[in-house]
Write a structure and sequence with these properties.
With about 160 residues, this protein is an alpha+beta fold. The chain has one domain: Roll (Thiol Ester Dehydrase, Chain A), CATH 3.10.129. The chain is built from three helices and seven strands. A hairpin with a 4-residue loop joins strand 5 and strand 6.
Length: about 160
């Protein structure tokens, strides 16, 4: 079964997704005996792009620590299309989709060095207190501030 056009529904008045694309090369430690990227590593590839995107929009790990925040992954999904091979350069695009909740909805696209679609997927993260583990009902302060900038066009994908 192949994915829909988008993993996340968007409302007409929502701002466009924020995105970043990173370049990587498949390392020896990331492939199996056939020199094909092991399927479990795609979530690591997603995480690398997600971390860069969060830094770009001001929600890096230092900001989380400052506000005593955690954002554990509560859902993840990967659709595989074409394998990546040992020492192959590839790109990972992470796109953060707008929502009003205390969560982050991020979609990913992995493309091989020739532009072929290798994988797509998504993660959903929910905010909670780092020490208390109590779930946030509303977006925490730094997320609300980031979304205000996003809504006002101060952040661009």
């Amino acid at each position: 079964m192949r994915r829909r056009k988008s993993y996340f529904a968007t409302e007409p008045e929502a701002p466009a997704p924020l995105k970043i694309t990173i370049r990587r090369r498949t390392a020896f430690s990331e492939v199996d005996a056939m020199a094909v990227a092991w399927h479990g590593n795609y979530l690591r590839f997603f995480e690398a792009a997600h971390s860069e995107l969060m830094q770009k929009i001001g929600l890096g790990f230092a900001e989380y620590a400052k506000y005593d925040l955690a954002a554990p992954v509560v859902q993840s999904h990967v659709d595989y299309y074409s394998p990546l091979f040992l020492d192959e350069e590839f790109t990972v695009c992470a796109e953060l989709y707008w929502n009003d909740g205390a969560r982050l909805d991020t979609a990913y696209t992995v493309r091989g060095n020739d532009g072929r679609l290798c994988a797509t997927g998504y993660t959903v993260q929910m905010f909670c207190g780092l020490r208390t583990r109590e779930a946030y009902i509303f977006p925490p302060e730094p997320v609300a501030a980031m979304r205000e900038k996003w809504r006002n066009g101060e952040l661009h994908g």
